[in-house]
Design a protein that fits this description.
about 325 residues; alpha+beta; four-stranded antiparallel beta sheet; 10 strands
Length: about 325
């Protein structure tokens, strides 16, 4: 069965523990992780996109003893730890209380990780140079303005530099990277709101206004997430006229919320609206204090087959947003 999973997902089996398997491979600037487990009478497949920069950055620091030896990923569902054993470098990848040990020196997956660490080492040397920031931002904006205060963080600049090196050329990066799209949107941020967002908001509000729960018993039900976003950002008395949801009032409230968001948060909503065309209320859930991105991914991919193009598209977009939002 695991051979079929490896073929369907175009991955390699990296480690095995009894009847549980960890499969992984590079997919552009992500590592694609799949965990295949036998649970009694059924099989379970869980999949995650992890940005290669995030892994390389942590691994580089933990090897050089700059951070603690733990990394939690995918809303805490996946955790990593690292240890050395003589010349060997051992990475432990844990999911669902099952730890898979991978020798980074001897396995192809491990060599890929160490290669990424080497890329990051070169970037670290370049990042101390004065021209570094200008070089990276110039790859994003049409024309670099020496008088403008570009507010991208050091981590963001290093992540962009990592993608640039991994993509080989600037044109390839710009053509293939959603991170490039997100950064460009952030640098061009405006408080002017897409006029369609307000009308699209109504699709979500109509589900939750005046309700406290949903009894549909459908595992793919969006109600809880919509309601979390709704109660976080809106007050019902600001949205209702004569006991009915008022679209004009909803638009006014969304405009107020929009102005109070950070540029990065506005980018997230615009980016997701552009890619998914869904109600901004479900995407506002990703901006709530205790958001669970994996829950968002689960609900968004619920109608799709696990290895379908639609499923993978949703996972990639949500994973980009999760990485960008940090």
């Amino acid at each position: 069965m695991v051979e079929i999973i490896a073929s369907d997902f175009e991955l390699t089996v990296v480690a095995q523990k009894e009847e549980n398997y960890f499969l992984a491979d590079k997919k552009n600037v992500f590592f694609y992780f799949v965990f295949f487990q036998k649970k009694g009478y059924y099989n379970e497949v869980k999949q995650f996109y992890i940005h290669r920069f995030e892994l390389a950055d942590w691994l580089n620091k933990v090897i050089n003893k700059k951070v603690e030896n733990d990394l939690n990923l995918a809303s805490g569902l996946v955790s990593l730890s690292f240890q050395t054993n003589g010349e060997d470098k051992i990475l432990s990848i844990q999911y669902d209380e099952i730890a898979f040990e991978v020798n980074l020196v001897e396995t192809d997956f491990g060599k890929q990780l160490l290669s990424d660490v080497s890329i990051l080492d070169k970037i670290e040397s370049e990042s101390i140079k004065k021209a570094f920031k200008k070089k990276i931002i110039s790859a994003v904006v049409d024309e670099y303005d020496v008088n403008k205060n570009y507010t991208l963080s050091d981590t963001t600049l290093r992540a962009a530099a990592f993608e640039l090196k991994s993509s080989k050329t600037k044109k390839t990066w710009q053509r293939t990277s959603y991170f490039y799209d997100l950064l460009k949107m952030e640098l061009q941020d405006t408080v002017k709101m897409n006029k369609y967002l307000a009308s699209e908001l109504m699709m979500g509000l109509e589900i939750v206004v005046g309700k406290t729960e949903c009894n549909c018993s459908n595992d793919g039900c969006f109600f809880d997430m919509l309601n979390t976003a709704y109660t976080t950002f809106f007050k019902e008395e600001d949205l209702v006229t004569d006991g009915k949801l008022d679209e004009e009032k909803a638009g006014i409230q969304l405009a107020k919320i929009w102005k109070e968001l950070t540029p990065k948060q506005r980018v997230v909503l615009n980016f997701l609206d552009d890619r998914f065309g869904n109600t901004p209320l479900i995407n506002l859930y990703l901006l709530t204090p205790n958001t669970n991105v994996q829950e968002y991914i689960f609900k968004m991919t619920y109608p799709y087959q696990p290895d379908s193009e639609d499923d993978l598209f949703v996972r990639k977009i949500a994973s980009w947003v999760e990485f960008f939002s940090r």
